[in-house]
């Protein structure tokens, strides 16, 4: 039988049906070439960062692991603690430094640095405390590893993934947020617990915001290949919608409960991120609900990152799954996008100073330079003005989208 380039033989005459299942990413960068030597950098050695590092090591996902943090003593202590376990681990070189240049040549940069979430604090409230941190972190990572994929874990992950995308200048398929990959695992666990089955036999997704406005895709849930809700309807087995809503509420409240009990989350997110790293670096093309640029999908118009089931591989996001959403789920997803967009608008404070190092020639009106520009947002409308370092006053003004995209 004739096979298409992708290997699909499901279509008439062996036609490739890939695009029927996946929506392509526009302006995507080509996948990076597979290398014999892999390098992962973890930025931030807090509880989450170290849980990720430990899981990456035990699962033998990389040849070289780099840790970066501003706390030199803690950083060295964590590095030594891992190095001393060398006899019990796969052979992985472990390095650490406060200087981001150590990340040079990374295949994957995992950003976990950020203010710790306080008990009862929503992820969105964390944002203001993490913005300045990202302005210091992302540009150096991009400079040292221009071909890397960025995996953002810091909360609130959806908006910070958007910020990382804008600061990096990368194609959107190479900037990924950990999103609802962990939420979906919690969802599968709770459903499996209700049905007394193995969670690995449950196919279920949480999409949208990694947070309070997330959306449970009940219409597409299956257990052992059996669509759950349609099966119950056909068998005339009653179920209460309140029960479904309570399961989703338990998913949303899970992180808050763990934080209340132990002060932070770590192990589950460590396994979740290692799971994503494996799919990316080993080009497994597995589907994960991660934070992607959602504009153009499911009726979402704004430039917003939120979680959708996406195929991951060496190129980062390879495509977004064409999963079925009913009308209610679609509306909730659009509402979730609006929640994130509203917060992005609030980020545009009366004056926010940001610095962009322009590595390529940019043209803004009559101003042409490779210099570093001082960029300023004025008001919630997103009016931007900038100046060349040689000038004392701002010369240009223009209305732009949140994030400072120009040129």
UniProtKB/TrEMBL annotation:
<dbReference type="GO" id="GO:0006089">
    <property type="term" value="P:lactate metabolic process"/>
</dbReference>
<dbReference type="InterPro" id="IPR001557">
    <property type="entry name" value="L-lactate/malate_DH"/>
</dbReference>
<dbReference type="GO" id="GO:0004459">
    <property type="term" value="F:L-lactate dehydrogenase (NAD+) activity"/>
</dbReference>
<dbReference type="InterPro" id="IPR036291">
    <property type="entry name" value="NAD(P)-bd_dom_sf"/>
</dbReference>
<dbReference type="InterPro" id="IPR001236">
    <property type="entry name" value="Lactate/malate_DH_N"/>
</dbReference>
<comment type="similarity">
    <text>Belongs to the LDH/MDH superfamily. LDH family.</text>
</comment>
<feature type="domain" description="Lactate/malate dehydrogenase N-terminal">
    <location>
        <begin position="38"/>
        <end position="177"/>
    </location>
</feature>
<keyword id="KW-0560">Oxidoreductase</keyword>
<dbReference type="InterPro" id="IPR018177">
    <property type="entry name" value="L-lactate_DH_AS"/>
</dbReference>
<dbReference type="InterPro" id="IPR022383">
    <property type="entry name" value="Lactate/malate_DH_C"/>
</dbReference>
<protein>
    <recommendedName>
        <fullName>L-lactate dehydrogenase</fullName>
        <ecNumber>1.1.1.27</ecNumber>
    </recommendedName>
</protein>
<dbReference type="Pfam" id="PF00056">
    <property type="entry name" value="Ldh_1_N"/>
</dbReference>
<dbReference type="Pfam" id="PF02866">
    <property type="entry name" value="Ldh_1_C"/>
</dbReference>
<dbReference type="InterPro" id="IPR011304">
    <property type="entry name" value="L-lactate_DH"/>
</dbReference>
<dbReference type="GO" id="GO:0005737">
    <property type="term" value="C:cytoplasm"/>
</dbReference>
<keyword id="KW-0520">NAD</keyword>
<feature type="domain" description="Lactate/malate dehydrogenase C-terminal">
    <location>
        <begin position="180"/>
        <end position="341"/>
    </location>
</feature>
<comment type="pathway">
    <text>Fermentation; pyruvate fermentation to lactate; (S)-lactate from pyruvate: step 1/1.</text>
</comment>
<dbReference type="InterPro" id="IPR015955">
    <property type="entry name" value="Lactate_DH/Glyco_Ohase_4_C"/>
</dbReference>
């Amino acid at each position: 039988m004739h096979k298409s380039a992708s290997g699909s033989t499901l279509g008439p005459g062996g036609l490739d049906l890939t695009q029927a299942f996946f929506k392509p990413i526009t302006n995507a960068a080509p996948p990076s070439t597979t290398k014999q030597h892999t390098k992962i950098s973890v930025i931030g050695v807090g509880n989450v960062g170290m849980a990720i590092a430990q899981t990456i090591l035990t699962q033998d996902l990389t040849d070289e692991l780099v840790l970066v943090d501003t706390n030199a003593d803690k950083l060295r202590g964590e590095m030594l603690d891992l190095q001393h376990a060398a006899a019990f681990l796969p052979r992985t070189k472990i390095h650490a430094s406060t200087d981001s240049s150590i990340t040079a040549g990374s295949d994957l940069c995992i950003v976990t640095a950020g203010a710790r979430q306080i008990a009862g604090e929503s992820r969105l409230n964390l944002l203001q405390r993490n913005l300045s941190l990202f302005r210091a972190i992302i540009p150096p990572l991009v400079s040292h590893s221009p071909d890397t994929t960025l995996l953002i874990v810091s909360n609130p992950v959806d908006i910070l993934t958007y910020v990382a995308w804008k600061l990096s200048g990368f194609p959107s398929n190479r900037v990924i947020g950990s999103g609802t990959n962990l939420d979906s695992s919690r969802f599968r666990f709770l459903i499996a617990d209700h049905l007394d089955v193995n969670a690995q036999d449950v196919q279920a997704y949480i999409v949208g915001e990694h947070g309070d406005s997330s959306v449970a895709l009940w219409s597409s849930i299956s257990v052992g290949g059996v669509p759950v809700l349609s099966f119950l309807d056909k068998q005339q087995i009653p179920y209460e919608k309140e029960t479904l809503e309570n399961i989703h509420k338990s998913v949303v409240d899970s992180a808050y409960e763990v934080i209340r009990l132990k002060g932070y989350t770590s192990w589950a997110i460590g396994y979740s991120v290692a799971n994503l790293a494996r799919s990316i670096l080993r080009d497994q093309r597995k589907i994960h609900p991660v934070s992607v640029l959602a504009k153009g999908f499911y009726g979402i118009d704004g430039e917003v990152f939120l979680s959708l089931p996406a195929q991951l591989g060496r190129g980062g996001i390879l495509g977004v799954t064409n999963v079925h959403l009913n009308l209610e789920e679609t509306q909730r997803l659009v509402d979730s996008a609006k929640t994130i967009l509203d917060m992005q608008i609030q980020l545009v404070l009366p004056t926010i100073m940001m610095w962009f190092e322009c590595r390529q020639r940019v043209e803004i009106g009559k101003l042409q330079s490779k210099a570093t520009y001082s960029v300023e947002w004025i008001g919630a409308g997103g009016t931007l003005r900038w100046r060349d370092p040689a000038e004392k006053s701002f010369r240009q003004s223009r209305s732009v989208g949140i994030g400072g995209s120009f040129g």
